[in-house]
Amino acid sequence: MPIISLRCRESITGWLFVSPTLAGFLIFFFGPLIAVFGYSATEWNLLTQETSFVGFENYTDALTENQDFWLVFRNSLVFAAGLVPLNMVMALSLAMALSRPFAGQVLFRTIFFAPVITAAVAWAIVWKFLLQGETGTVNQMLAIVGIDGPNWLREPNWAMVAVIVTRVLKTVGLNMILYIAALQSIPRDYTEAALLEGASRWQIFGRIIWPLLTPTTLVIMIVTVVGSLKVFDHIYLMTGGGPENGTMVLAFFIYEQGFEFFNVGYASALAVIMFFLIVALTGLQLRLKGGLQ
Amino acid sequence: MISSRIQTVSWYLMLAIASVPFVFPLLWMLSAAFKGPAEIFATPPTLIPDTMRWSNFLEVFSYQPFARQYVNSLYIAALVSGLTLLFASLAGYALARIRFAGSALLLLLLISALMMPEEVTIIPNFFLMRELGLMNTHAPLVLLPVFGSQGVLATFLMRQYFMALPKELEEAAYLDGLSRFGVWWKIALPLSRPALAAVGIITFLNSWNLFLEPLVFISDVRLFTLPLALANFTDAYGLPLWHLQLAATSLAVIPTLIVYIAAQRQIIESFALSGVKG
Amino acid sequence: MIKQIVLATALTAFSISMAFAQDLRMTVWTGSDAHLGMLNDIAEEFESTHPGVTVNFETIPFSDYVRGLTLQLAGGNPPDLGWLLESSAPIFVDAGVLLDVSDKLRNDAAYNFSDLSQSAMTLWQSSDAIYGIPFSTSPYLTYYNASMFSSAGIATPNQMVKEGSWTWEALRIAAKKLSDPANGVYGFQSPDGLGYDSRIMHTLIPIVRSYGGEAWVNGKCGFDSPEAIQAITLYHQMIFDDKSTVPPGEQANFFTGGAAMTINQISRVSNLDEANFEWGLAPLPSGPSGESPTIGQAAIVAFARGQNTELAAEFLKYMTDTKNSATMAQFFPTARKSVLEGDAFLNSNSAFSAEQIQIVADAISKGGVLPSHPAYPQIEAAMRPRFDALWQADAVIPSVMASVCRAIQPLL
C-alpha cells in the first residue's frame, strides 16, 4: 500500500511543518480566546482576586445599564467611519498621482510613506504637542492666516477629528503603496486604447481602473476597518479617551475597565463583544466581496 | 506650452502642500529636540532653535536607561521577526503545498485569529503569563506577536505567496530526492525573498510599535521598550517633559527613517511584489 | 557520603547567602532628585545596620501610579513597600493586599506609636490592624511669585492674610491683574497643572470646602450643592472670563515663572531650587464659610504578598520612626505630634522660614483630609468625563455638576 503510506507520510510532514505555529497559536491565542468567554461570565476583581459567577450580568450591564458603553460603541464606529473612507480616498489619490514616473516621484513617495516607518508613539507625542491649545503650533500657524483654531484635544468633537486625521496621516502611506502596486499591474494598453477612443480621464478611471482595483480595495478595506477598531496607543497618548469620553473607543475601554478599574469580568465581556463586532464586520465585507465578484 | 508649465507648477505645488502634514511634524520634532523647555513654547514659534541644546540628548540618557531600552526594542523586534519568518514560512508552506489530513480545519481555525486585535485576548494572556512566571519579562512581547494574530497574518501572507509560485521547480527537486524540508529550505524560501522581506518589515515595525503589551506586562524601567520609554519622559506628576520627550522621539525615529530612505526602493518593491495586496 | 555532606554544606551556604542578600523594592511617585536623595540616605542607613539588604526606590509617575502598582500586585510581582494616597486607602485596605504591621509597631516602645496623631491614622487602621503609616500629612498652600506681586505693586497674599482679606475673590482679582497670557504668563495655575486631569479633586476641593461644600457626605454627592456650584463657578470664571488661569491644554508652570500663583504642598519646594524670582508661601484663601485647610495624605504601606514581609515591616517602622519622620518633614510633614510641635520641624527645610513652616503646622492642625472612598477608582472614572464638560467656555455649571452627581451617586 505505497499510496496510503505516502499520504500518511505527507500528513506527518504537514503537521510537523505547522506544529510550532499551531502549538503557539493554541496556547497564546485560541486558549485565551476561549478563556475570555469564560471570564466574561464572572465578576472578578483584579486587585482582590475575588471571583464569582454572574452569568450574563456583565453583558446586560454593558448593553442596558452602563451609559458609557453605547457612547464608546458609537465612538468606535465613528472613528472607523471617519478613518476608513478618508484613508482610502487619500491612499488612492496619492497612488494615482505617484504611480507614473516624474521627476521627484521617489521623493514624494518617500515623504508620504515616512510616517508609516515612524514609531506610532512618537507620531502621537509630536501631534499632541502640535495640537495644544492657543500656544500649540498648529493654532499659531492658523492664527497667521487669521483662523482662530479650536482647542483641538480638549473639545470632544474636535478631538475625534484630530485623532482620526493624525491616524490617517500615520497609516495612509502603506495603503498608498498597495494601490500603487495594483495600479502598476494594470496593463497600459487598456487605458491607452480607451484614450484613443476619446474617453475622458474620469471615464477611464470609473470604467477601467476602479473595477480592476476592486480586489485590492476590498483587502485594504478589511484591513483598515479592523486596524481602526484596534487602535489603542494613538488614543491613549493623544487624548487618554477624553474629553468627556469623546474619543473613548472599545479597545481603550477594555484596557481601562480591566487594568485601571480592575473589573476583569466586565472587561472580558467587552472583549467578547469586540470579538463579535470584528467577526460581523469582516463577514459583512467578505459577503460584499462575494457580491462584487 | 505656458499652460503645460502652469500645470506642472501647480502639480508640484499641490504635492508640496499635501506633503506638509507628513513632513512638518518630523521637522518640528527635530527642531524642538534642540530647544529648552521655554523656547519650545515661544511665541512666535521658531523653526531653527536660538541655541542648539545638545544637552537634551545627554539628559535623555541620564533620565532613564534609554540606551538599554533602545537595545531592548531592537533585539525584541529582531527576535520577533526572525521567529515569525521561520514559523510562518514553515506553516505557510505546508498549508500551500502539502495535502495533509485536517489542513482545511486548521486553516479555518487560523482564520479565526487573522483579524483579531490583541485587546480581545490580553486579559487571559495577563493571567497566563503570570502563571508561567513571565510577568515583567520580555517573553510576552515575543510570544504574543509571534503566535497571535500577527503571526497568523504572516502565515497567510506566506501561504498566498507560496501558492502563486510555479510548482515545477519544487517538483523537479522533489524527484531529485530532496525531502519536503529540503525543498522548503533550498527552493521555496530563496524564491520567496520579496515576501519574506515584506513580512519581515511589517513584523519588525509592528514589534517596534508594540505598546499595549509592554504597558501591561513590563513594570521595570530597565526592561521598557522604546514606545513605553518615550511615553515615560514625564515629570514626577505625569506632565510631559517636552524637550526630553521630543529629543528622545528624534533619537527613536531618525535611524529608522535613514534606514528606510536608504532602502526605500527595495522596501516599496518588496511590498509591491510580495502580493501583500492579496 | 562525602559528596552528600559537600552538597548539604553548599546548599546551606547558599541559603544563608540568600537570607542575607535581600532586596526591598519600594514604589514611589516622586522623581525629584531632592526627594529621592533623601530617601536613599535613609535607605543607606538602614542598609548599614542590616547587612546584605538593599533598598531600591522605583518611581511610577503620579498619574499612572495606582494602575502601575495594581498591575504589579495582580501580576504576581508585588513590590515590598510603597507609597499610597489617601484616595486609594479604603480600596487597598478592603482588598486585603496590605500587610498588617501592628505587632511590629506596637511592641516597640522606642517607636512610640501613640505619638502619631489618631486623626491622621483613621484611614489606615481597621480595628486593631495597622495597614500603613502616613509619612505625609501635607496641607495645600498658596505659593506665590513675590517678584511679580512687587513689580505690579499689589498686596501679596501674606499681606492680605494680615489684613484678613485673603479670600478666593481676592486671589481672583490678583490673578487677573498679574496675568498676561499673550506672553505666556498666567495669574494662577492648578496643582502641577494637572487640575483638568488627574488632580481635579486637588484643585476644586479646597475652593469648594471654603464655600461650605463637600465632594460627598454620608453617601450623598455634594458637587451639585449651591455652595459647590458657587465655588466652581468662581474657578470657571477665572479660566474663561478673566483668562487668568492656565487653561486646559496649555503649559505654563509656576515654578519656572509662568504663573503668579499656584496651590500645592510643601514637597514642591524642591522645584524652586533654580527659581530666578522671589517667592512666598501663604495659607489657602478663605471663603464665605471661613478657612478650610485641605490636606493631602500619603502613607507608607507594606504589601502582604511581598517576598520579605518581615523585613518590609522593619523598614516601614524605620522610615516612620521619630528620627526619620523629622528628616522627611522637610518635604513631607509627618503625623508625629512630637515632631510637629518641636523646633526641629520649624527649621527642617532651609528653603522655608520658620514663619512659613508655622503656616504649614497651623494648616495641619486645622485641616481636613481630601475625600476618599472604597470605590474611588470607579468614582474617579465616572467623574472625569463629566468634569471634562466643565472645561468649556460655555459650560452650564449647574447642569454639569448635576451630571457629575448622577454619574457617581450609584457608586457612593
Word description of this protein:
The complex is a heterotrimer of chains A (293), B (278) and C (412). In chain A, 76% of the residues lie in helices and 2% in strands. In chain A, strands 1-2 form a two-stranded antiparallel sheet. Chain A folds into two domains: 2-39, no CATH class; 65-292, MetI-like (MetI-like fold), CATH 1.10.3720.10. Chain A has 293 residues and is mostly helical. Chain B is mostly helical. Chain B has a domain at 64-232: MetI-like (MetI-like fold). Chain B has 14 helices and no strands. Chain C has 412 residues and is an alpha/beta fold. Chain C has 18 helices and 14 strands. Chain C has helices at 2-20, 33-49, 65-74, 89-95, 102-106, 118-121, 146-152, 157-163, 168-178, 200-210, 226-240, 309-319, 322-328, 337-341, 343-346, 354-366, 376-388, 397-408; strands at 22-28, 53-59, 81-85, 125-126, 129-130, 133-139, 141-145, 186-189, 216-217, 220-221, 259-264, 279-282, 294-302, 368-369. In chain C, strands 1, 2, 3, 6, 13 and 14 form a six-stranded mixed beta sheet that branches. In chain C, a hairpin with a 2-residue loop joins strand 9 (216-217) and strand 10 (220-221). The relative contact order of chain C is 0.16. The A-C interface holds A 45-49, 67-68, 132-136, 151-156, 240-246, 248, 256, 259-262 and C 66-67, 70-71, 73-74, 91-92, 94-97, 181, 184, 196-197, 247-251, 377-378, 381, 384-386, 388-389, 391-392, 407.
